[in-house]
Amino acid sequence: MRLLQRKPNGEIVFREPTSGEVPAYAILSHTWEEEEVVYQDLKKGKDKSKTVNKAGWRKIQFCAKQAAVDGLEYFWVDTCCIDKKNAVELGAAINSMFRWYQDAARCYVYLSDVSKPDTGVDDQRAWGEAFRKSRWFTRGWTLQELIAPRLIDFFSSEGGRLGSKLSLESIICEITGIANKALRGDALSNFSIRERRSWAEHRNTTIEEDEAYCLIGIFDVSMVPNYGERRDQAFRRLEDKIHRMYKGVDFEQFAVGLNLASFPEATQFVAREKELSKMHELLQDHSSRSCVILHGLGGMGKTQLAITYARRHKEKYTAIFWLNANDEDSLKLSFRDVAQQVLRHHLSNSVLSSVDQDKDLDQVVSVVKVWLDSPQNAKWLMIYDNFDNPKTPGNTDDSAVDIRQFLPRSDHGSVIITTRSSQVRQGIRIHVQKLPDIREGLQIVSNMSGRKGIEKDPDAIALVKELDGLPLALSTAGVYLEHVTTSFSDYLQLYKTSWLKLQTTSPLLDSYEDRTLHTTWQITFDRIQQQNTASAKLLKLWAYFDRQDLWFDLLRHANFVDDEWIQKLTKDELNFNEAITLLCTFGLVDPDRSPQQQVGARGYSVHSCVHSWIVFVLNKEWDKSHARLALTCVASEVPDTNEKNWWLLQRRLLQHATRQNAFIADDKLDIDGLDWVFHNLGDLYFDQGKLAEAEAMYFRALEGKEKALGPDHTSTLSTVNNLGILYSDQGKLAEAEAMYFRALEGKEKALGPDHTSTLSTVNNLGTLYSDQGKVAEAEAMYFRALKGKEKALGLDHTSTLDTVNNLGNLYKNQGKLAEAEAMYLRALEGCEKALGPDHTSTLSTVNNLGILYSDQGKLAEAEAMYLRALEGKEKALGPDHTSTLDTVNNLGTLYSDQGKVAEAEAMYLRALEGKEKALGLDHTSTLDTVNNLGNLYKNQGKLAEAEAMYLRALEGKEKALGPDHTSTLSTVNNLGTLYSDQGKLAEAEAMYLRALEGKEKALGPDHTSTLDTVNNLGNLYKNQGKLAEAEAMYLRALEGKEKALGPDHTSTLSTVNNLGILYSDQGKLAEAEAMYFRALEGKEKALGPDHTSTLSTVNNLGTLYSDQGKVAEAEAMYFRALKGKEKALGLDHTSTLDTVNNLGNLYKNQGKLAEAEAMYLRALEGCEKALGPDHTSTLSTVNNLGILYSDQGKVAEAEAMYFRALKGCEKALGPDHTSTLDTVNNLGTLYSDQGKVAEAEAMYLRALEGKEKALGPDHTSTLDTVNNLGTLYSDQGKVAEAEAMYLRALKGKEKALGPDHTSTLDTVNNLGILYSDQGKLAEAEAMYERALQGYEKSLGVENITTYIPALNTMFAFGDLFSQTDRKDMAKVIYNRALSGYTAVQGPSSKRCRQLEDRLEALQIASAGSKVGQNEFTEPGAAESRSLKRKLPSWEGG
Predict the structure, then answer these.
(1) 960: Cβ contacts below 8 Å, ≥ 6 apart
(2) How far is CA 1346 from CA 730, 1099, 1313, 1341, in A?
(3) Higher model confidence: residue 1080 or residue 859?
(4) Whole-prediction pTM
(5) What are the tens digits of pLDDT across the range 769-797?
(6) Fewer CB within a 10 Å sphere, N or C end of the chain?
(7) Among candidates 435, 411, 404, which has minimal Cα distance to 304?
(8) CB–CB of 474/511 below 8 Å?
C-alpha cells in the first residue's frame, strides 16, 4: 500500500510500499473531477509546480492538514496512490480497496458539491438539502467507502466539518436505504446477497464493468478485473464467485431450486431481527453441522420465523428443504417430496431414481440421507417444522417421533427445528417469545385487517396490549376485522366477554396449520393430559387465579380438597414441580425470570391468550368449587405485617385477589363461611392502600361474623377494630371513633378492661384523638393503654413500648419536645434490650428520634438517626422495603431543610421509584413522596415541575382517599402556596378556601391543621394588601393554637411571628416588636437560641430595627442570625443567604455601598450555586444589586442587573407576576434618574397596569408605583398629573396602612416637595410637618435621626425655612439632619456635604450678607429628595 506523507516542513511525498507493518493513516473519499492529481504527477524527481496548480491538489492538501489535526502523519488518496497504468497494481488495489478503507484510522469524505456558509452557527438547514443531493451518494465506488471505515467525518467544499457517520446516520440511512447496522460495522455476511446488491442499485460508475468490480469488497470475494468484458459478464463472474464462496466449488451438481410450494403459507411477517441475527450467527459456519431449535408456545410465529430465514438467506445454500415433523408418517412423506425435488433438478442421480417412492418410504428416507451425507454436498438447509411430540423417556405416546432417525449422519449441513417442546436437545435452542414491541403487534393487525394508520389509535393499542404480542392472536384479530366493520374497542369487548364464540366465528388462517386460536393448544393439552393428569388439572385450575405468578406455596392451601389430583399436586413441592415442568416443556407456562426482589419460590405465568383459552375452553363449564378453592388459597397466604418481607408477598397476592374480587362481585362462587377470607383480604387491601376495596371486604367479613358468631364475639370485634383503623386512614374520623367505641365496649365486656386486645383498641383511640387534635383525650387513652400494658405485659414488652412511642409522637406534636425525647429514648432503650439494635421496631423508634431532632433543629443528630435507621432497615428489610423508603423520604426532607437540594432530590426520587414499584403509582404513601418532591421543586423555583407533582398527588389522593380527606386537603393547601408564589392569587385563594372548608368539616374549626390553613390565608391576604383580613386570619389562627397547643408551642409562635411581619407592614412597629419578642422568647425556650426557626425571628427583628432606623440594633440582629445560620445550615444555605441579602439592604441604606455590594455578591454567588442562575431568589438579589448600582450611579451596571432580573422573572413567573412588575418599576426609576422620561413612563405604566390587575388598585405595591409616577410627572413639570398621582397614593395608603405608616408619610413628603416647587409654601410646610410628626410617632423621636426618609424630610423642611427667611429654624433642622446623615452615611457623604454648604451659607447670612434662594438650593436638589419607591426583594427569614 503506497501512502502519502506530510513532512514537518509541509512537503508531501510518497511512502513506497514495504513488507513491514503499515503505519496508522487517514484515507480520503471523494468523487473524481477534472484536474485530479495522479500518480505520475507526484513521482520522485517530477517538477511539482504544475501539480500544485491542479484543482485536485486542494483535496490532497485538505486531507494532509486534517490528518495532521487528528495526529496522523500518513494518508491515502486514490487518485495518486495507485499507478493505474500498471494493470497488476490496479487489479491488486481494486481487490484490496475495501480492506484499505476498513483499516484506516479515519476516513474523510470531501463533498465538493456541498457548501457550508461560515455564519458562526452550525445550522444543518443551511447545507442539509445539498448534502442529500450530493453526487457522492450516487457513485458506485463510494458505497464501500461508506461502509468499510470505522470512523468517517464528512466535510464541505470549504473544508468545514458537517458531522460524522454516526451523527448523520439517520439521514444517510434515508438517502441510501442501507440498514444502520451495516453502517455501524455489523458483519456484512449478516445481510443477504440480495440486500447488499440493492445498496448499489441506484449507483453508477464511469466504466460499466466497475459496477460489478466496486462490489468485490462488499461480498468479500476476489476477482481479476477484465476491462472490456462488458457489464453483464462482469456480474456473471461476480455471482459465480459469490456462489462458490457460499456453496462450494461443486455447488452446481447439488443445487436444488427453492420450492415455495413445499413451504407452509406465509403470513405478512413482522421481522424478529434479534432472532434472525442469532440464527444466522449459529448457522453460517459450514465447517460442521449447525442446528438451531426454535421452541416456544404454539402461535408464537416459529414457523414464520423459519420461513423468513430461509427466504432471506436462500442464496447461501445449495438446497433448502421443508419437512413436516408432526409425526413419522408426515416426515416420511416430506422425505419423498425432497427426493422428487432433487430428481427434478438432477435426473441422472441413479441412487434416488432407483427407489420406488410410492411403496418403500423408509428406503426413500435412507437414500435422501445418503445424498445429503455426500462430502461435496455440505451447503444444504433442512427445516423440520412442528416437531412438537418428541420421543423422550417420559413420553409414552406411540406417535412420538425420534427425530434422530431422520437426521443425516454426516457432520455438515444446517438444520432448523421448530417445536413447542423445550426437551428437544439436538441443537442450540432459541426461545421464541412474544413480540416485545407493541408497534410490531400493531403492524400485524394493520397488515391483516387492511386498516392503516392505527399506530396512535388508543383502541387499537388497547387491543394489541390485551393480545400481548402473540402473532396468532394478532393475526386472528386482524383477519376478523378485515371482514367486518366492528371497531377495535368493540372487538376487545367481545374478546373479553364472548371469547370462544368470537374465535369459532373468525375466518381461518392459511398460515397456521392448527387453523384457529381456540384449537391450537388442544393437541398440546391432550398430550399433557396423557403424560400427567396433575399437570392438566393444574392448567384448568389456573383459570381461577390471575395468569401471572402462580407458585407452590399459594396452592398448598388446597390440599384439603376432595380431589386426588389436586391433593397429589399440593402434597409436596416435588409433585408440583413435576406437573409445572411438563407445562413448561410444552411452552404453555413460563417460569418467572424477573430480576425483581421476591419472597418465596419464583412463580410461573401463562400468556394472556392462553389464559383466555384456559378460561373459555378448558373451563367451559364454570366450577364454583374451584373458584372458592382459589379464593381460600389467596386468603390463607396473606401474611401478617410482622413477617419478614410481608409487603413483597402481599404484592404477589394482590393480582390474584383482584381477580377473585370480580368473581365475588359476579356471584361466581359460594361465599358461605368465608368471613375469615374477607377479613384477610380486607387486611391485604388495606396494607396495599386500596381503601375502598378494603372497606368492602371488611363489611363482608363483619356481616358474616355478626350472623355466624354474634355482634360481640371477639373475632367480630377484631374486624370492627380494623374498620376503625381504615376509617381513620380515610379521614372519616367520626366513623372511626364509632367503630373503636363499639370494639372497646365489646372487648371490655368479653375480655375485660385490662386485656391486651382491649388495650390495643384503647391505644388506637388515643391515635384517633391525636389526629383529631383532642390532645387531652389522646393522652388519657395512651396513659390507660400504657398503664394496662405495663401491668399485663411488663415495662419492656414491645407492645408497651409501642404505646410509649405513640406518647412520644403526641408530645412532639404538642411541642413538648423534651417529654417526647424522653418517651422515644425509653422506647428505644426497651426495643434495643428486647429485640436488639437492628430490629425493625427499634429502627422505627430511631427514625422517630430523627424526626424529633429535625424539628428541634438538631440537624446533625437527626441525620445520624436517619442514617442508622436506613442502614438497619436496608440490612433487615432490604433497600426496597416501604419502611426503608419512608426513612429515605425523611432523609430527603432533612436534606431539603439543610439546603442540600441535589441530595434531597436523590432521596425523594429513590423513595418515589421504590414506592411506585412496591406499592404502585397511586398508593397514598407514593403520593406523599410525590407531594414532597413538589415542595422541593417549589423551593428550588422549579414552579412548573412543582405544579406537576402537586397535581399528580392531588389527583391520586382524590381517587384513593376522596376529595375531602385531610391528606388530599394538605396537597390542596400546598397548591395554594404554590399559586401564591406564582402570583396566581385568585387560584391560591380558591385552594386555601377549599382546604379550609374541608378541614373545618373533617377536623373541626379549631384543629391545628385547620389553623395552619387559616394562617396561610393570612399570608395570602397580606400579600394581596388585604391587611385587615390578614390580621383577622392570623388572630383566629393564634387564638386557636393557643387553645389547642398552648401559648408557647412552636406552631403558635410561628403565627405570632407572622403577626409581627403584618404589624411591621402596617407600620405598627411597636406591636410588631412585641410580637417578635414574644416569638423569640418562646422559640429560644422551646427550640434553643440557635435553632433555625429562632434565627428567622432574629432576622425579622433585624428588618424591623432597620425600618425603625435602629441601625446598630438591626446589624446586631442580622449578625446573630447570620452566625447561627452559618453554623446550623452552612455558609451557602439559602436561608443563610437571605440574611446576607438583608445585611446588604441595611448597608445600602446606611450608605455603606461597598459593604452592601460585598453582601449582595456573596448572596448572589451562593444562590446561583445552590438554586441556579434563574431561580426567583437569585433574581431577587440581582434586582437588589440593580438598586445598589443605581444608588452608586453605575447606570449601565444597574440596567444590566434589572434586565437580567426582568428576563428571568418573565421566564420563571410570567410577565404579569408582581415580582416581575417590581423589577419593571425599578427600571422606570432608573430611566427617570437618567432623564429618559418616555422610557420611565412606559415602565411605570406597565407596572401599574399589571399590579392593578394582579393586586387591585388599592394594594400598597400598586400605590408605590402610583407614587413613583407622581414623582416622574413632577420632574416633567406636569404638576396637575403629579398631584393627582400623589393624592391617589396618599388616599390609598391612609386606607390600607393608616395615616402614620412610614410609606404613607413618604408620599406626604413628596406632596410637600411638589407644593414647594409650585410655590405653595404653606401647603408644603403642612405636609413636611405632618410627615415629621408621623415619623416621630411611628418610629420614636430618638429613632428618626437615623431613618433616611425622615432625614430627607428634615432637609426639605430646612430649605423651606430658609426660603421663608426663618434662618434660625433652618439652622436647627439642618443640624439635626446633618447629625443623622453623619451617623448613618458618614461625614463624607453627598448629603453631609450639601448640608454643610447650606449651614455655611446661613452663617454668612447671619453675618449680614443677604443670601439668595438659589444659594441654598442647588439645581434639582428638591427633586432628588422625592421618595421614589425602589422595590427590593423581600426581607424574609
Answers:
(1) 689, 690, 691, 922, 923, 924, 927
(2) 58, 20, 21, 10
(3) 1080
(4) 0.64
(5) 988 878 889 999 999 999 999 999 999 89
(6) N
(7) 435
(8) no
